[in-house]
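Milestone 3.1: sequence recovery, worked example.
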């Protein structure tokens, strides 16, 4: 991008933003009143003249305000793409650091709960349900590959390298970025229906296969494979005679070690929570979402960090467990997680919003 000093950049962005909103030529007085630049009309007028000489602005009529030229639009769009590049890197670095802390937190927590209750315990890390597309960015890697970066509302980032048959020009890539973001931004996977998909593919023409790859990446960001599950205390089951015979124990331990089964369990529990409206659920015998636990009771608490970010804690034991004690402990733990992680989630949102304000 051609270099401009900070003041000229700010004035140019303010003019383009105003023109995009109103469609009317923008004068110096409008910018001085509607922006946070804190510059006089005379100073803005001088800078606008310089920007016009540099080819970023033009005057449609004598003494009228200015409108952006193609060069001005190009500078503006390239700045947005550059800002999104930085935001993606910042978000990825932030999420890596947070995930490392989160993993340690839940490993220690699940171990503590299992030791405290002397019962097998499972906890899912917070995952995002009904997540919306924040933005998608396509970038050239080389002549045969492009990089698709999908960022969801919860700042969940997923990268995917897409193989292309023919090199994409910068203009073609820009048009695809605009097309995808125009149709997908703000939608959940459930809202991206066949009508929307067909429309995007039709407009993408020869690049319809790239749209398909991007949609697959969006779907992958909320797949069950991403659900982080922590367990502890499986051998506590042997303390209860009715659960410790070889067949029951093997069946239980196999389920407890199977991430796919536990992911299904967590998803079923969260669906029940959504229907019932209460975070505490008790499953006795055959009521359990997984039939291999039919000889047990399962008590769960689902914590909610807002914006669809949820996780579940589950304690498994004999049908003669002390339900009141377990439910009281789980409810207290649920509230503590919401309080502790809620602050971290609020910080993450603020960081994400700060990144948005740069664009």
């Amino acid at each position: 991008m051609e270099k401009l000093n900070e003041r000229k950049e700010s004035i140019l962005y303010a003019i383009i933003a105003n023109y995009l909103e109103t469609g009317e030529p923008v004068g110096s007085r409008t910018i001085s009143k509607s922006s946070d630049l804190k510059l006089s009309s005379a100073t803005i007028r001088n800078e606008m003249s310089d920007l016009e000489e540099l080819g970023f602005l033009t005057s449609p009529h004598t003494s009228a305000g200015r409108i952006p030229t193609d060069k001005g639009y190009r500078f503006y769009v390239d700045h947005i793409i550059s800002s999104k590049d930085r935001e993606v890197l910042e978000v990825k670095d932030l999420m890596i650091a947070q995930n490392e802390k989160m993993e340690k937190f839940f490993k220690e927590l699940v171990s503590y709960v299992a030791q405290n209750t002397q019962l097998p315990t499972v906890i899912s890390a917070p995952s995002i349900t009904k997540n919306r597309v924040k933005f998608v960015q396509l970038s050239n890697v080389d002549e045969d590959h492009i990089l698709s970066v999908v960022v969801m509302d919860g700042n969940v980032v997923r990268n995917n390298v897409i193989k292309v048959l023919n090199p994409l020009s910068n203009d073609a890539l820009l048009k695809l970025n605009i097309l995808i973001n125009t149709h997908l931004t703000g939608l959940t996977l459930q809202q991206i229906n066949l009508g929307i998909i067909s429309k995007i593919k039709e407009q993408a023409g020869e690049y319809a296969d790239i749209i398909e790859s991007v949609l697959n990446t969006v779907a992958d960001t909320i797949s069950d494979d991403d659900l982080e599950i922590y367990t502890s205390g499986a051998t506590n089951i042997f303390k209860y005679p009715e659960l410790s015979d070889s067949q029951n124990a093997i069946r239980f331990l196999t389920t407890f070690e199977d991430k796919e089964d536990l992911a299904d369990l967590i998803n079923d529990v969260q669906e029940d929570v959504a229907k019932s409206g209460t975070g505490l659920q008790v499953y006795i015998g055959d009521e359990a979402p997984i039939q291999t636990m039919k000889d047990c009771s399962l008590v769960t608490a689902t914590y909610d960090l807002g914006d669809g970010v949820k996780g579940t804690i589950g304690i498994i034991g004999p049908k003669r467990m002390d339900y009141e004690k377990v439910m009281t402990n789980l409810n207290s733990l649920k509230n503590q997680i919401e309080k502790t992680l809620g602050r971290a989630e609020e910080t993450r949102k603020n960081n994400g919003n700060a990144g948005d304000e740069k664009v």
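Residues 100-129+227-358 form a domain with the Beta-Lactamase fold (CATH 3.30.450.40). The first helix runs from residue 6 to 22.
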